[in-house]
Specification:
two-stranded antiparallel sheet; mainly alpha; ADP-ribosylglycohydrolase fold; 2 domains; 475 residues; 2 strands
Amino acid sequence: MAGWETMRELVLKEIIQGREEGRDPAGLSRVEAKLDAAGDDRVALEALHAELLQVPLLPDFPFNEPNDLATIRKLRPARERPAAPRLADDELYDKLYGAWLGRCVGCALGKPVEHFMGSHGKLESWERQKLFLTAISPDEWPLRDYIPAHSPASGETGEVGCPASTRDHIAFMETDDDIRYTVLGQIILERFGPDFTLAHVAHQWFQSLPYNFVCTAETQAYRNMVDRGTAIRHVWKPDKVEKANKEVDWHWIVHRLNPYREWIGAQIRVDSYGYACPGNPELAADMAWRDASISHAKNGIYGAMFCAAMMAEAFVESDPLAIVEAGLAEIPTTSRLYADIRQTIDFCASLGNRFEAFEEVIRELYRRFGHYHAVHTNNNAALCAAAVLLSGGDFAKGITLAVMGGWDTDCNGATVGSIVGAITGAAAAPTHWTGRLNDTLNSEIPGYHPIAISECARRSLKIVRKVEAHTAAKG
């Protein structure tokens, strides 16, 4: 079984993935030439996918993109990493609550337009993205409110999705993968502590995520873990997790029939690790690496580390550039993602990091990174970085810019929402956005459906204190 896609589609996507990660084009073409002969034969197509993974990288490929944490750390930029300050309970709770609210608000803002803003394909330009949004909300540019349930241009754009997240109906945060993974990260930290392993993450997936809750890289990794059978069975038994960590071939889990391994999935799973490590972006990135490494590789992992580190820094730093730089400091300088984010920082700076320049910035991001699929890590991470930089730390500017930029609208709104929410705090966050959720999350995960968003923040505060105590005990 291939997952939600046909086996042929996985092979075609693997060819694209191979080109992006620098595999020899001649070798990829030789495999592609065998597709017609393979027809729809599953075994033959799976063999072609495996053959694509063996095509070597070009010797002059300018990037070095390891997957193991030790090598990633060696390739990070040099940077002082001071001890994290300890925030008082009241201040930290307010920031944690703000981060949870920001994630929910940003996700809800992006959900109704996700299906035609590019996340299920690739629209050809920023102008096309803007056309859709301005047609849906013709009296609002930039966006100033949630998406309306009915568009005056629905004949052209189609009806928006997710009515429970539109301005006409919103009364809580409805379930979404961007929110379920934040809940899942919190459960992992509560159950297994800050030293959780890859097998703990897999265990919790099996406990909390039905197969129909996952997509792209997560779908393929989930299926591969089931297919692995004997070796993976131990993740169902927490007392045998160490045995599972030694026996499971995680490289196989990540790469087999998984051309999505550099897409955005891991990047949207790591917010709770940033929340758990205020002022400690290195530890947040370490946790994100462990979570991401069961399904993603290379830039798919780096995007998760980058975003978790930014979130951790946002609890103790209000300067957007310092926050983005803290995230960038945790990934290899030799990676495509590092180069893409560095370009984004420089271009935003050339325009004064002004919110008013957002259209010019987004247009440039599409020009530079529009060759990626709309749910790839790199283009969306660059958009998140730009939204943080141009927002000036302002809650509303951050989430609206992230959604107006298109691509994976709900994912980017949620990620940027966590960051600006942590900067702003719940008390100062605009109630125009936060009040409509009525402090309620419906995640469809047991124990979190329904739950007060403020209760999620209280649980995060307890986790922070446990992580701090654990870190101090380790010296």
